[in-house]
Amino acid sequence: MSVDALIHRLHACVVGAALCVAAFDAPARTVTVAHTGQTLGAELELPRGRTLADGAILMVHGTMAHRDMDTMRHLRRLLRDRGHSTLSINLSLGRDRREGMFDCAWPSTHRAEDALAEIGVWLDWLRREGARRVTLLGFSRGGHQAAWFAAQRPPGALDAVVLLAPIVAGDLAGRYAARFGAPIEPLVARARALQSAGEGGAQLRGVGFLNCERTDVSADAFLSYYAPRPESELAATLPRIAAPVLVVVAGGDEIVRDLDQRIAPLADGQRVRMTVIPGADHFFRDLYGEDAADAVDAFLRQR
Q1: Would you tell me which CATH number, out of the four given (3.40.50.1820, 3.40.50.10800, 3.50.50.60, 3.40.50.1000), belongs to the domain 3-169+230-301?
Q2: To pair with 78 at 20 to 30 A between CA atoms, which of 50, 98, 136, 288?
Q3: Which runs of E-coded beta strand occur in the chain?
Q4: Strand pairing class (38-45; 86-89)
């Protein structure tokens, strides 16, 4: 990095810190909604002087995480400093009033597609509360789920979609073996057999699953993540999204490799745009979060 670039980044850090202090007393509150017998929670942050009528960004976190994971908390502060209201949600993952990271001691019965209904509940809440414009932003697995949700919505349902380092299926078998030291094929076969017998709720016990080294997971849940529907993948969802889309790629992403090459054939520069943050890791740590927030802010101001 050149001296000039370093000075620019340090200046951005100082300015960002000053903005954070200036906006410290901006209204923020936890809100809840009821859904299928459970209570879902989210954090609503409004820049001072702004209301939901000015628009909001609905934010979806990554795998088994939560609204206050570092990436989400940092990004919504940066977006607030740039004048954007945010509603950062907790996906329930099958747990009532879930907070913090998903506990691997709990059995997993949640399916990837369950997130879509919950995103819809929060979108409806924002509209009822007077949000005239809503941008859907998903990070990592939340990006995959946000794109899947948006692809099923009619024109006008969303004003814009932002996908921050969204995951792609890729080589699931290879990644599973590298992550857990065991082949995935026998587990998929067992889960499919249970599902075919009408026992999709039966548990695979003590297996590797998402962020859990060993946990119990239902056959339905296992297949939803490790044998995903083709129509849920970015190659299928991006062309079907009616709203303008920005895909933000982390140039040094160690989790979603070669994302720029996967997205490039789908990005037409108009309805679907892509921007790469050179050097950023998957979580956009440190000052790379500023770069990501700048990209999102510029995209939304063009709407």
Answers
A1: 3.40.50.1820
A2: 98
A3: 28-35, 38-45, 56-60, 86-89, 134-139, 160-164, 203-209, 212-218, 245-250, 272-277
A4: antiparallel
Predicted local distance difference test score (pLDDT) of residue 27: 61
CA distance 203 to 35: 24
Place of tokens 């989210």: 42
Domain ranges of the chain: 3-169+230-301, 173-227
Distance CA 221, CA 217 (A): 6
Bridge pairing between strands 245-250 and 212-218: unpaired
Contact 88, 76 (CB under 8 A): yes
**CB neighbours of 168 closer than 8 A, spacing ≥ 6?**
144, 233, 234, 256, 259, 262
Residue pair 190/217 in contact (Cβ under 8 Å)? The answer is no
pLDDT means over runs of 10, the chain (303 residues): 39 41 60 96 96 97 97 97 98 97 97 98 98 97 98 97 92 90 97 98 98 98 96 95 98 93 92 97 96 98 86
CB contact burial 127-158 (16+ within 10 A = b; e otherwise): eeeebebbbbbbbbbbbbbbbbbbbebeeebb
Buried b (16+ CB within 10 A) or exposed e, 200-233: bebbbeebbbbebeebbbbbbbbbbbbebeeebb
Q: Under DSSP, is residue 290 helix (H, G, I), strand (E, B) or coil?
A: helix
Cα–Cα distance, 44 to 13 (Å, whole number): 24
Pairing between β-strand 134-139 and β-strand 272-277 as defined by DSSP bridges: unpaired
**pLDDT computed for residue 26 by the predictor:** 54
